[in-house]
Amino acid sequence: MRVRIDNGTCLLKPSIDMERAALALWAERLRPDEKITYKGRGPDDGEYWTVRLEAADVGLTLVGNFEEDKRAIESLRNAFFFGCNPIFVEAVGDGVRIAATRCKLCGSYVIDMPSAEWKTCQPCSERCQHELERGITHSETKELDVGNFCVKCGRAPAPTGATT
Ligand SMILES: [Zn+2]
Ligand SMILES: [Zn+2]
Predict the structure, then answer these.
(1) Mean pLDDT in the chain?
(2) Which ligand minimizes its atom distance to the CA of 129?
(3) What pLDDT digit, counting tens, does each position of 57-87 carry?
(4) For site-directed labelling of 26, which of 3, 9, 121, 135 has its Cα 20 to 30 A away?
């Protein structure tokens, strides 16, 4: 499977017949914005490089061929685990484009973890009038921390006016 994060969505391109058949069924049965269920990571996968999905009675396991695919799958897993089940966007050739969700403010597709978890895309978070609160934060590296984050867009901007 080729897995490429691209402009708020993720493009899945089959590399073997089984993947091609599953994606063709999704393309046929799913409508835009229809939910795909995140079924967890692979059983023996300590590195989050396998992600299992299911939609329209068709299961699909994302296994990366190359380092780039593995990194993309890891970031998808974080978005789906901390954020939400993915949605179908469109068929592209023999591949399929999916997203984590849509931005609650502008409706654009998002795929990265903070955007998915808070349903707020990066451009909208940059326009946000942040309301900061202190609480538990977590990052792409999965480390928990205590810090300030915005209760509206979830981002944790660097404190202004502070010098180090
Ligand atoms: Zn937005
Ligand atoms: Zn904010």
Answers:
(1) 89
(2) 2
(3) 999 999 887 899 999 998 899 899 888 899 9
(4) 121
Tokens (6 digits) for 19? 């993947």
Distance 36 CA to ligand 1 centre (A): 21
Domains of the chain as residue ranges with CATH: 2-102 (3.30.70)
* Ligand 2 centre distance from Cα of residue 118 (Å): 10
In tens, the pLDDT along 21-63 reads: 999 999 999 999 999 999 998 776 566 788 999 999 999 999 8
Q: Nearest ligand to the C-alpha of residue 123?
A: 1
The torsion angles phi and psi of 127, rounded to 5 degrees, stand at -90, -5
